[in-house]
Structure prediction request, 232 residues.
Amino acid sequence: MKFLRNAAGQPVCIPRGSVRFETPLTGVFLLGPALPGPSLGFDEMNKAFTREDTSPEQDDDDEVRLPDLPAGSKNYITPAGFSRLREEIKDLIERDRPKVVEIVSWAASNGDRSENGDYIYGKKRLREIDRRIRFLTKRLDLAEVVDPSGQHGNDQIFFGATVHYAENQGVERSVTIVGADEVDLERGRISWISPVARALLKSREGDVVSLPTPGGLLQLEILEVTYPEPGV
Prediction:
């Protein structure tokens, strides 16, 4: 293990083999390119799940399209987010896809496929699964894992921070700044490229920042900035 100090001067352990960077977005630590764990053979899997059905029933939107990121930027993601995507692709490959393949094979053995609902639906579902696998594979290939616990104790806002702020109308909100593949608005998880996150980044507790909105500038007062504890 390597030991470095975060912005608060506290020692933080860094796993052997990790890479240390300093950027305006992520602050001190950028750990990558991937978390430790069993390999899923993503490169081989991606080749295996290329288009295998070119019939007219093929979905028009089968091409994998990746969300836009600012030019030259990385596809930042938290360790938890990376693990979730990795578990999703693992479940798709090892659980969901085999079940659908079994259904399709059974349905195909029942005769005429043109009016076979189980076969038609199964093939459609199989294309959806394969498309999702290709998408996740590309996202994981591009991912740069950032561990926000390296900023624990810091009051400046970087990637992975949970920010409690007040709008000038008195409304208080809390958001956590995460990667584009981790967004969950119901849980207050916003992308680091969103307008709110870009307004908050690099500010500190007590600062007031401006957020352009269709109705004019909104003033946001930073009330509290927190990061997860190392090892939690």
In short: Helices lie at 42-48, 79-108, 117-142, 195-200.
